[in-house]
Amino acid sequence: MRIAMIGGGYVGLVSGACFAEFGHEVAVVEADAGKLAALQAGRMPIFEPGLDKLVADNVAGGRLSFGADISLAVAGADAVFIAVGTPTRRGDGHADLTYVYAAAEQVAHALTGYAVIVDKSTVPVGTGRRVAEIVHGARPDLEFDVASNPEFLREGNAIGDFMHPDRVVIGTESARAREVLRQIYRPISLIEAPILFTGIETAELIKYAANSFLAMKITFINEMADLCERLGADVHDLARGIGLDGRIGRKFLHPGPGFGGSCFPKDTIALARISQDAGAPSRLVETTVAVNDARKAGMAARIVAACGGSVRGRTLGVLGLTFKPETDDMRDSPAVGIIDRLVEDGALVQAYDPQGMDQARPLLPGAVRYVDGALAAAAGADALVVITEWNEFRALTPEQLSSAMAGRVVVDLRNIYDPAAMAAAGFTYRSIGRPAPTPTV
Questions:
Q1: Per residue in 372-383, pLDDT tens?
Q2: Residue 411's beta-bridge partner residues?
């Protein structure tokens, strides 16, 4: 099948490369000249494990190409996927669909025959119908169908999620469109991954509902972690105790400083607005947003308290800046608000992240000294703060930290260290939802 992918960002690039790996001919259209030049030169504009090799292999195989000319990419395509950005619109929290609608009009003028126009971007209910109106208005003569095919890609594991998905959701009322997309996803059906066909509105809503439900699970376990701290319980045992119930499940029950990233903050806010506009407010989603925002804002206070009530003039080492490991994405990362507050309180922050430092610099201008390794972040620090759970941080031993640091305070917002081992090494160790151990040295 011949596929045009409008947008070479995270979703478009990963999806396009994976479709090419399936054997389809994929042309990715990227309007940003800098990103396009990088892609054409074989450089990935984002960090995603395995993506550089996947792209290189399929470019070499002639199945994947990058360009700026939408007409060349769309001409003769069986399906055109719209995978452009839908950022939160300023002022009201709704998804900004400017790029989606502009792409739809461009695609309409570029198509040379029947194709399925597929919304791959995360879009609110009603977008597919509006895309159909735009295309029909621009080309009343054109034969086409519109479908919704939301993505469910976790940053850091996006290729695996695409190749071995829990499910593929396709929203369309057209039998012809259903058959085209069935052929595109045939390799998925061969491994017996479920392909769920629904109406367009249902498919559009599924993505928001799924992300909001997962965000609620994270927020729930974070609140339980706070309760555990007050009552002397252990949140990890609690999470295992409830997660072993098959009706609940063990995933997304890991306490931390609050969720961030490109999806959960944006999608929970959007669903709350969609629900309000529809006259069926989702109070659980609204509360999830409010509780998560408050949690991220309160993390700096935990660090200050662990340091005896003041961080003025103290050197704080920070491990991790991205919102999660195995990505360079800084969008809505808890690290930004935490570090801003610590610097405002007079702390001297030295930070390390394996992938996110270039992306962090414009978000934290002049506020941070960036160093070239985890032990360099700990060197001479009065306190060490873990914000992102990169595996290389887990490998640090209490002895290594003790030798590097000037102080003996560790605030672990991801619970990656053993409290007993840290206490035995003489550290004042504070984590999330676990009893605070007493230093023994």
A1: 999 999 999 999
A2: 385, 430
Half-sphere exposure of 74 (CA within 13 A, CB side): 28
Contact 382/304 with Cβ under 8 angstroms? no
pLDDT at 439: 77
308 and 279 housed in the same domain:
no
C-alpha span between 79 and 141 (Å, rounded) = 18
> DSSP class of residue 134?
H
Which two tokens mark 85? 């950005």
CA 19 – CA 149 distance, rounded (Å): 14
- Helix, strand, or coil (residue 404): helix
Do residues 275 and 281 touch, judged by C-beta distance below 8 A? yes
CB atoms closer than 10 angstroms to residue 17: 29
- 414: domain CATH number? 3.40.50.720
Among 18, 228, 263, 307, the one annotated catalytic = 263
Least Cα distance to 385 among 424, 344, 342 occurs for: 342
Q: Which residues pair with 25 in a beta bridge?
A: 2
What digits encode the pLDDT tens for the residues 233-265? 999 999 999 999 999 999 999 999 999 998 899
Q: Are 413 and 383 in contact (CB under 8 A)?
A: no
Alpha carbons within 13 angstroms on the beta-carbon side of residue 33 total 0
Instruction: Give the pair of three-digit tokens for residue 429.
Output: 């160790």
- Residues 27, 2: Cα–Cα separation, whole Å: 8
CA distance 439 to 48: 39
167 assigned to some structural domain? yes
| CATH number of the domain where residue 236 is located | 1.10.1040.10
Tallying the residues shown for the chain, one arrives at: 441
Is the domain of 86 the same as that of 20? yes
With respect to residue 238, please indicate whether it lies within any of the assigned structural domains: yes
Q: How far is CA 200 from CA 147, 293, 435, in A?
A: 6, 31, 48
Checking if the pLDDT of 92 tops 90, the result is no
Find the domain containing 296 and state its range.
292-430
**161, two tokens:** 């999620």
Active site residue 228: no
**Residue 127 neighbours by CB distance under 10 Å:** 24
Element (H, E) at 410: strand 409-412
